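#structure-requests
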Amino acid sequence: MVAAALTTALALSAVLGLVPSPAGAATAKERRVAKHTKVYVQGDSLTVGSGPGITRRLTPSVRRVAVDAQVSRPTSVGVARTLSSAAARASRVWVIALGTNDAPSPSYIRAQIKRTLNAGDRQVIWVTIVRPGGYAKVNRMMRQQARKRPRLHVVDWARAVQQNRSLIGGDGVHATSYGYEVRAALIAAEARSLAQRG
């Protein structure tokens, strides 16, 4: 039942543009490129919950997955840890899933996004934020920045939750067990797609 629901959620997500559409299997060259790619994931409590699922889904496809996550981690701390991490510096794809523990400030998060993009020539994924209290404007900024910056990509967790409220728990922030699986699948699908690029 859960597997079928997850498959349905991922199919819907592809239609909505939340993850790459599985139009066909990766080519042999794309699989070889991905096998040499390292992925670094930075996050807060939502990544504590989804990190194992991300790792499980990516491990067969990429060379290494490194996850650094902590409950209540603010964005500035997570970005600083990323910039100083040997595992991050060695990775070609970064996933940054932060912002839940900060005020809903588009200018602040935009500055943090720039820090990650300015740290090297790699693909950077940011995950939109679900939390009551004005975070929609931060998510709009992320989407706008991704349209302008070719190395910036957005996994639209907020849109997924908007389409299916069963992904999120009663506090309006943390995912349900099903939600963590879907969140992990969305992030892993985007990271895998980027890892396959030459």
